[in-house]
Amino acid sequence: MWSEVFAELHRGRVSTDDEIAQAERALGFPLPDSYRGFCRACGAGLAGGAIRIATPLPFPAADLATRAEVIAHSIQAALALLEAPPTFSVEGDDPTVLERACFFGEAEDGSFLFWDVTGTGEYDIWVLAPDLETVRFGAESLDAFFLRVQGEGVRAVLGEAAEPLPALFEGIEEAVLARGAEPI
Protein backbone atom coordinates (compact mmCIF):
# COMPACT_ATOMS: atom_id res chain seq x y z
CA MET A 1 0.00 0.00 0.00
CA TRP A 2 2.67 2.55 0.96
CA SER A 3 4.56 2.15 -2.31
CA GLU A 4 1.33 3.38 -3.96
CA VAL A 5 1.27 6.44 -1.69
CA PHE A 6 4.95 7.33 -2.06
CA ALA A 7 6.45 7.02 -5.56
CA GLU A 8 9.85 7.28 -3.85
CA LEU A 9 9.95 5.40 -0.56
CA HIS A 10 13.25 5.17 1.31
CA ARG A 11 12.52 3.30 4.53
CA GLY A 12 13.66 4.57 7.87
CA ARG A 13 13.94 2.70 11.15
CA VAL A 14 10.65 0.76 11.27
CA SER A 15 8.74 -0.06 14.44
CA THR A 16 8.51 -3.61 15.75
CA ASP A 17 5.26 -5.21 16.89
CA ASP A 18 6.52 -4.96 20.48
CA GLU A 19 7.23 -1.23 20.12
CA ILE A 20 3.77 -0.66 18.64
CA ALA A 21 2.15 -2.62 21.50
CA GLN A 22 4.18 -0.64 24.05
CA ALA A 23 2.98 2.65 22.51
CA GLU A 24 -0.63 1.44 22.66
CA ARG A 25 -0.24 0.65 26.36
CA ALA A 26 1.38 4.02 27.04
CA LEU A 27 -1.30 5.96 25.14
CA GLY A 28 -4.22 3.84 26.33
CA PHE A 29 -5.85 3.12 22.96
CA PRO A 30 -5.24 0.90 19.91
CA LEU A 31 -3.37 2.54 17.06
CA PRO A 32 -5.11 2.81 13.68
CA ASP A 33 -4.40 0.12 11.08
CA SER A 34 -3.15 2.61 8.48
CA TYR A 35 -0.71 4.05 11.01
CA ARG A 36 0.48 0.58 12.09
CA GLY A 37 1.14 -0.22 8.42
CA PHE A 38 3.04 3.05 8.02
CA CYS A 39 5.21 2.25 11.07
CA ARG A 40 6.10 -1.16 9.65
CA ALA A 41 6.58 -0.14 6.01
CA CYS A 42 8.00 3.40 6.20
CA GLY A 43 9.25 3.99 9.73
CA ALA A 44 10.84 7.19 10.99
CA GLY A 45 11.33 9.89 8.42
CA LEU A 46 10.01 12.88 6.51
CA ALA A 47 7.05 12.64 4.14
CA GLY A 48 6.78 14.99 1.20
CA GLY A 49 9.77 16.92 2.50
CA ALA A 50 7.49 18.54 5.06
CA ILE A 51 5.69 16.17 7.46
CA ARG A 52 7.26 14.12 10.21
CA ILE A 53 5.16 11.35 11.75
CA ALA A 54 6.20 10.13 15.19
CA THR A 55 6.49 6.35 15.32
CA PRO A 56 6.91 3.95 18.27
CA LEU A 57 10.68 3.81 18.72
CA PRO A 58 13.21 3.62 21.55
CA PHE A 59 14.48 7.12 20.64
CA PRO A 60 12.61 10.00 22.35
CA ALA A 61 13.06 12.51 19.53
CA ALA A 62 11.04 10.29 17.16
CA ASP A 63 8.96 8.18 19.58
CA LEU A 64 5.16 8.45 19.31
CA ALA A 65 4.29 8.43 23.03
CA THR A 66 7.05 10.93 23.84
CA ARG A 67 6.25 13.28 20.93
CA ALA A 68 2.50 13.15 21.68
CA GLU A 69 3.17 14.35 25.22
CA VAL A 70 5.75 16.97 24.21
CA ILE A 71 3.54 18.45 21.48
CA ALA A 72 0.46 18.58 23.72
CA HIS A 73 2.44 20.20 26.54
CA SER A 74 4.05 22.73 24.17
CA ILE A 75 0.67 23.73 22.74
CA GLN A 76 -0.84 24.09 26.23
CA ALA A 77 2.13 26.22 27.33
CA ALA A 78 1.85 28.47 24.25
CA LEU A 79 -1.91 28.92 24.74
CA ALA A 80 -1.38 29.75 28.42
CA LEU A 81 0.78 32.72 27.39
CA LEU A 82 -2.09 34.35 25.48
CA GLU A 83 -3.88 37.29 27.08
CA ALA A 84 -7.25 35.78 26.19
CA PRO A 85 -8.28 32.18 25.58
CA PRO A 86 -8.10 31.24 21.91
CA THR A 87 -11.21 31.14 19.77
CA PHE A 88 -10.89 27.87 17.91
CA SER A 89 -12.15 27.68 14.35
CA VAL A 90 -12.86 23.99 13.87
CA GLU A 91 -13.99 22.59 10.54
CA GLY A 92 -17.38 21.01 11.21
CA ASP A 93 -17.86 23.22 14.31
CA ASP A 94 -17.00 20.58 16.93
CA PRO A 95 -14.40 22.18 19.24
CA THR A 96 -14.51 19.10 21.49
CA VAL A 97 -12.35 17.35 18.89
CA LEU A 98 -9.38 19.02 20.61
CA GLU A 99 -10.32 17.40 23.92
CA ARG A 100 -9.90 13.99 22.27
CA ALA A 101 -6.65 14.86 20.48
CA CYS A 102 -3.57 12.67 20.41
CA PHE A 103 -0.81 14.45 18.51
CA PHE A 104 1.32 12.26 16.28
CA GLY A 105 2.94 14.46 13.67
CA GLU A 106 4.19 17.88 12.77
CA ALA A 107 4.73 19.80 9.57
CA GLU A 108 7.53 22.14 8.61
CA ASP A 109 5.05 25.05 8.55
CA GLY A 110 4.33 24.62 12.28
CA SER A 111 1.12 22.60 11.91
CA PHE A 112 0.41 19.62 14.15
CA LEU A 113 -1.37 16.43 13.16
CA PHE A 114 -3.62 14.67 15.63
CA TRP A 115 -6.12 11.85 15.85
CA ASP A 116 -9.59 12.28 17.27
CA VAL A 117 -9.35 9.14 19.39
CA THR A 118 -13.00 8.16 19.52
CA GLY A 119 -14.33 4.78 18.55
CA THR A 120 -12.11 2.00 17.29
CA GLY A 121 -10.24 1.22 14.09
CA GLU A 122 -9.20 4.29 12.12
CA TYR A 123 -9.38 7.67 13.82
CA ASP A 124 -10.05 10.87 11.90
CA ILE A 125 -6.90 12.88 11.30
CA TRP A 126 -7.04 16.59 12.02
CA VAL A 127 -4.52 19.40 11.59
CA LEU A 128 -3.98 22.21 14.08
CA ALA A 129 -2.64 25.16 12.06
CA PRO A 130 0.40 27.21 13.16
CA ASP A 131 -1.93 29.92 14.53
CA LEU A 132 -3.02 27.33 17.16
CA GLU A 133 -6.65 28.29 16.53
CA THR A 134 -7.55 26.85 13.12
CA VAL A 135 -8.39 23.15 13.04
CA ARG A 136 -8.90 21.46 9.67
CA PHE A 137 -10.00 17.95 8.81
CA GLY A 138 -7.16 15.95 7.23
CA ALA A 139 -8.52 12.53 6.29
CA GLU A 140 -10.00 9.31 7.64
CA SER A 141 -6.72 7.35 7.47
CA LEU A 142 -3.02 8.08 7.18
CA ASP A 143 -2.69 6.85 3.59
CA ALA A 144 -5.71 8.99 2.58
CA PHE A 145 -4.12 11.96 4.37
CA PHE A 146 -0.88 11.70 2.41
CA LEU A 147 -2.70 11.22 -0.89
CA ARG A 148 -4.80 14.31 -0.11
CA VAL A 149 -1.81 16.56 0.65
CA GLN A 150 -0.06 15.36 -2.53
CA GLY A 151 -2.92 16.84 -4.58
CA GLU A 152 -5.15 19.89 -4.68
CA GLY A 153 -6.67 18.84 -1.34
CA VAL A 154 -3.53 20.15 0.34
CA ARG A 155 -5.03 23.65 0.53
CA ALA A 156 -8.04 22.41 2.49
CA VAL A 157 -5.72 20.60 4.90
CA LEU A 158 -2.63 22.82 5.27
CA GLY A 159 -4.05 26.18 4.22
CA GLU A 160 -4.62 28.22 1.07
CA ALA A 161 -0.92 28.97 0.54
CA ALA A 162 0.13 25.31 0.62
CA GLU A 163 1.36 23.56 -2.50
CA PRO A 164 0.93 19.82 -3.17
CA LEU A 165 3.67 17.78 -1.52
CA PRO A 166 5.82 15.38 -3.53
CA ALA A 167 5.06 11.65 -3.23
CA LEU A 168 8.31 11.09 -1.41
CA PHE A 169 9.27 9.50 1.90
CA GLU A 170 12.83 9.93 3.17
CA GLY A 171 13.48 7.57 6.06
CA ILE A 172 15.81 8.14 8.98
CA GLU A 173 18.01 5.18 9.82
CA GLU A 174 18.52 3.86 13.33
CA ALA A 175 22.16 5.02 13.47
CA VAL A 176 21.07 8.61 12.86
CA LEU A 177 18.29 8.40 15.45
CA ALA A 178 20.72 6.91 17.96
CA ARG A 179 23.05 9.88 17.60
CA GLY A 180 20.27 12.19 18.79
CA ALA A 181 19.75 10.58 22.18
CA GLU A 182 20.22 7.50 24.25
CA PRO A 183 17.44 4.90 23.84
CA ILE A 184 14.62 5.08 26.38
Labels describing this entry:
184 residues; alpha+beta; nine-stranded mixed sheet; 7 helices; 9 strands
Would you write up a description of this structure?
It is globular, with a radius of gyration of 16 Å. It has a nine-stranded mixed β-sheet. The protein has helices at residues 2-5, 17-27, 33-41, 64-80, 142-149, 154-158, 174-180; strands at residues 8-10, 45-47, 51-53, 89-90, 101-107, 112-116, 124-128, 134-139, 168-171. Helix content is 33%, strand content 21%. A hairpin with a 5-residue loop joins strand 7 and strand 8 (134-139).
| Unreliable runs | none
User: Into which percentage range does the β-strand content fall?
Assistant: 15-25%
Gross geometry: globular
**Mean of all residue-level pLDDT scores:** 93
Distance between the termini: 31 Å
The structure class reads alpha+beta
Work out the oligomeric state of the chains in this entry.
Answer: single chain
Q: Helix coverage percent of residues?
A: 25-40%
Q: Biggest β-sheet: count, sense, barrel?
A: 9 strands, mixed
